[in-house]
Specification:
By secondary structure, the chain is α+β, with helices and mostly antiparallel strands. Helices cover 41% and strands 13% of the residues. Strand 1 and strand 2 form a beta hairpin. The longest helix has 9 residues. The chain is globular and about 35 Å long.
């Protein structure tokens, strides 16, 4: 729903570490590296690929199902420190 994202962004949403999941998604071509974030440590930015969309029967990110009421805030909330780094 929100890309590009860092591994830390994913972990913030999921609430668990995701190194293995990100590595496997990269290996299978479901996500790709899109560059680096202009923040401390220059973390890698990731986004979904066409293979990801095809796997789930989607033509574009816009085809994703809508989030349930209240979910949007948790997915799109960016901690203040991250928001400041984006500016």
């Amino acid at each position: 729903y929100r890309q590009p994202v860092t591994r830390a962004d994913i972990e913030n949403v999921r609430g668990v570490r995701c190194e293995y999941a990100v590595r496997e998604l990269l290996k299978t071509g479901m996500i790709q590296e899109l560059g680096r974030k202009n923040a401390l440590g220059r973390p890698m930015l990731f986004g979904t690929t066409d293979a990801f969309l095809r796997h789930f029967g989607l033509h574009s990110i816009a085809d994703l199902p809508p989030l349930a009421p209240g979910e949007e805030e948790s997915v799109f909330d960016i901690p203040e420190a991250q928001a400041a780094a984006l500016e």
